[in-house]
């Protein structure tokens, strides 16, 4: 059995709104918790260098040039000048050109769990990374986020085309920064995306443990158990894309200070590391997931959008745009002569059809086998008009595909 990965073009996640220059206004000090601001500064590499204990802290940015700039951040709102200090600190952050300042402001504006990727690649002249290396980092990160979103919809070793629309929609509110110095950060809003961040956190640790088990024993059993934690063909492929061509890669999930730590997750965790030595286990696991994901019995309702057969009689192939019964956008079905005729007539009068069969993993869950019970389905007038409009827009293709036989 062969499989074709259901990759397709991935919907890009939203660009970081704080790419330079910062165009937003500083957050209102009234809406900022001083403890959250201090936690974010520490997370993004700022150093506390003194300050009045119990009243405020003096923070300097990361890097060799950080000693010339500092922020005074109150530890609480217990003192009259707390709001003034907060306002001055936030204004200074908004005027700063350092990436860490922009990332702190984004996390304050949209409370988010942060996912960070690092990959170690040979540096170019003056320590610069190549364009292709940074592009690979962004592509691998997008694939990993999509794999995590798929795992929040269902636990499966291979998702294929299933749930991809809803998973891609879950990434619409994710904010992604610029890939610089081999590092990339994604901001996953807590309000809409925390399940995604939790699932990725759990899946990464499960994948690491499964790789270690395979390298120690040669057995793949741990990968089977890891599916429940969110590991899948899609996740292993994203890890391969992240690690391939590098000296190693790391991924870390940091929880939004304003929202606290999710249940069953560690308050803080070291990055999960993967190396080129893990690639063989990851590739073997991905192939195993493809090979062993079972077919799914379904009853699908769909609109006929394409009909094709080699002659005026006999079996034919039908493509359905799925309306209900399976979370995939389209399926292809081979029908006998009578079922093909029913599908053609339903298409001509603007009616969807209902059909039963098995959704095969081969090809990414895009093909229905063992199809039977093809019947037209009545729909309301508005839906029928929409389907008829779609028919007329594609009438030339439909007549060619039917071979003049569908109106008999």
Describe the structure in your own words.
The structure is a single chain. The protein has 408 residues and is an alpha+beta fold. It folds into 3 domains: 81 residues, Metal Transport, Frataxin, Chain A, CATH 3.30.920; 181 residues, no CATH class; 107 residues, OB fold (Dihydrolipoamide Acetyltransferase, E2P). 38% of the residues lie in helices and 21% in strands. It is built from 12 helices and 14 strands. It has a 6-stranded mixed beta sheet, with helices on both faces. Strands 10-11-12-14-13 form a 5-stranded mixed barrel. A 3-stranded antiparallel beta sheet has the order 2-3-4. The N terminus and C terminus are likely disordered.
Number of DSSP E strands: 14
Percent of residues in helices comes to 25-40%
Distance between the termini: 38 Å
The run of helices and strands is EHEEEHHEHHEEHHHEEHEEEHEEHH
Shape: elongated
Q: What is the structural class? A: alpha+beta
Low-confidence parts: 1-22, 394-408
The number of helical segments is: 12
Structurally, the number of domains stands at 3
Largest sheet: 6 strands, mixed
CA gyration radius, whole angstroms: 27 Å
Spatial ordering of strands, largest sheet:
1-6-7-5-8-9
Average predicted local confidence, pLDDT? 84
Q: Could you tell me the strand content as a percent range?
A: 15-25%
Helices and strands in order:
Layout: E1 14-15, H1 34-43, E2 47-48, E3 56-60, E4 71-74, H2 82-95, H3 99-109, E5 112-119, H4 131-153, H5 164-170, E6 175-176, E7 183-189, H6 190-217, H7 221-226, H8 233-243, E8 249-254, E9 272-274, H9 279-292, E10 296-308, E11 316-324, E12 330-335, H10 337-348, E13 353-360, E14 367-376, H11 381-393, H12 395-402
């Amino acid at each position: 059995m062969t499989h074709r990965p259901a990759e397709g073009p991935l919907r890009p996640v939203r660009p970081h709104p704080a790419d330079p220059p910062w165009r937003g206004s500083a957050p209102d000090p009234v809406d900022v918790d001083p403890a959250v601001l201090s936690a974010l500064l520490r997370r993004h590499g700022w150093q506390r260098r003194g300050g009045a204990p119990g009243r405020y802290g003096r923070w300097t940015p990361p890097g060799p040039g950080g000693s010339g700039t500092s922020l005074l951040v109150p530890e609480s709102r217990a003192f009259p000048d707390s709001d003034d200090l907060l306002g001055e600190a936030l204004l200074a952050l908004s005027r700063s050109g350092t990436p860490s300042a922009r990332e702190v402001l984004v996390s304050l504006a949209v409370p988010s769990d942060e996912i960070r990727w690092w990959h170690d690649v040979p540096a170019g002249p003056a320590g610069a990374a190549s364009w292709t290396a940074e592009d690979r980092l962004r592509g691998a990160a997008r694939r990993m986020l999509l794999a995590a979103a798929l795992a929040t919809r269902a636990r499966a070793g291979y998702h294929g085309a299933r749930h991809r629309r809803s998973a891609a929609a879950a990434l619409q509110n994710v904010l992604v920064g610029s890939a610089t110095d081999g590092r990339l950060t994604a901001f996953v809003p807590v309000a809409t995306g925390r399940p995604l961040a939790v699932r990725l956190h759990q899946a990464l640790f499960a994948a690491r443990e499964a790789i270690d088990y395979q390298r120690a024993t040669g057995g793949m059993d741990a990968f089977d158990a890891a599916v429940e934690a969110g590991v899948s063909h899609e996740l292993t492929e994203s890890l391969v894309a992240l690690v391939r061509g590098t000296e190693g890669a790391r991924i870390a999930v940091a929880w939004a200070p304003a929202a606290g730590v999710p249940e069953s997750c560690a308050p803080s965790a070291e990055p999960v590391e993967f190396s080129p030595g893990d690639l063989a286990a990851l590739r073997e696991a991905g192939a195993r997931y493809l090979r062993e994901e079972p077919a799914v019995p379904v009853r699908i309702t769909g609109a006929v959008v394409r009909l094709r057969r080699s002659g005026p009689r006999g079996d034919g192939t039908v493509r359905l745009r799925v309306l209900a019964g399976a979370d995939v956008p389209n399926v292809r079905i081979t029908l006998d002569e009578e079922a093909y005729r029913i599908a053609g007539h339903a298409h001509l009068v603007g009616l969807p059809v209902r059909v039963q069969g098995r959704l095969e993993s081969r090809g990414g869950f895009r093909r229905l086998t063992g199809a039977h019970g093809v019947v037209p389905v009545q729909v309301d007038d508005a839906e029928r008009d929409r389907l008829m409009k779609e028919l007329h827009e594609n009438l030339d293709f439909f007549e060619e595909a039917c071979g003049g036989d569908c109106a008999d």
